[in-house]
Each structure stands twice: as structure tokens, then as C-alpha cells.
Amino acid sequence: SSVRVGDYDTRTDPDCGSTGFCAPVAINHAVSQIIVHPDYIEGQYHHDIALLVLRTPINYTVAAQPICLHSRKQDLTVGRRVQIIGWGKLSTSGTKSPELQSLEVPLTSWDKCVRAYASTGALQSPQSIDGEWMCAGGEGRDACHGFGGAPLIIRDQGRYAQIGIMSFGAETCGALNMPSVYTSIAHYAPWIEANSPKAFV
């Protein structure tokens, strides 16, 4: 498997803007190791996180930059506007977007999220760990199929930081009052640091 770095439009390479500027060509980096959380169970959403170790280092460009990991829970307040980005579907019956999409959604209270998924029991399993998930969306526009694993980000002190990883959402994309559920970066920050190659921590 591999990770493609520096892409925006999957139909073109390189990606060029209307001004004539072209970004560097996107690069595929081979994955040398996948570190799955030891408590993850396939088919369930608990501990829905893994680390990909690349065989070669990434050369950062104007089109490919690292993102900070946000490890503070206290400033992630309900109602704060955050962004989900990815190449998923734009509607339940649609196809995946060839261009990188970005959507602003609000952070949602945990109580509202639990009520929304009460009939599924997804957030009420005995395996649930307090704080392992966070919720965002529910306004009628949301992430859709194909966004699994996509980052949830905020702008923090002038720079972008990742706060979550898309885990699951409503069967009908963008259903009103049905926020999507994300694995919390802050909750898993110690595990991420402990299992990241030391050269990259």
C-alpha cells in the first residue's frame, strides 16, 4: 500500500491553477508498517486509529505540509467551527469527488451525539472509553461515504491542527441532527507519541 502526498485533483497531475501556477507533482510513498491500536476490533469503531510508517521521508512543498496534532481537550468547546476535508462522496447516492473537499461544521455535545445514535447502540457499548470519540456536524451538511479516516481540523493560534479522525456517521449523508463521530486525537495523543518512530516525534 502507499500514501499519495501533495494531491488536490485526482484527475490531473500536476495540479495547476487559473493563474498558471502549477503545484509540484504528487508523490506516492510506500507504507513500510501499519501500527494498529492493540484494542481495535475489525468491524467495530472502538480505538479506530492506526499509524502508517512510510518507507521514505516526505519532502515538504507548497502543496504538502505537515499538520500539528491538537492534544488539549479544554479549548474544544461545543459550537466551535471546525473543518472536515477529504475526497469522499458529495451525497449518499453520488460518486466520490475528484477534488479535495472542505466543509465547516460545529463541534457537537456528547449528550446530543449519544441521543442521535441511541437506536444503534454504537456509542453505548461497554467497550466505550470516556473521551475516545468526539462529534461534529448535524446541521444538514456533513461528511459522506468515503471520508473515513479524513482529518477534522481547527485553526489554532495561526496554524492548522488536527483534532479528530473520521470514524463513522449517519447512513444518510448530511442527515439533520445526526453529527458524525470522530476518533479524538487528544485522547490518543500519548499512544501516538509512544508508537511513532522517534525521528518523527
TrEMBL record:
Family to which this protein belongs: Belongs to the peptidase S1 family. CLIP subfamily.
Signal peptide from the UniProt entry: none
Any single GO BP term: proteolysis
Record's protein name: Peptidase S1 domain-containing protein
The Peptidase S1 domain, residue ranges: 1-197
Gene3D superfamilies associated with the record: Trypsin-like serine proteases
Domain of life: Eukaryota
GO molecular function terms noted in the UniProt entry: serine-type endopeptidase activity
Species this chain originates from: Anopheles farauti
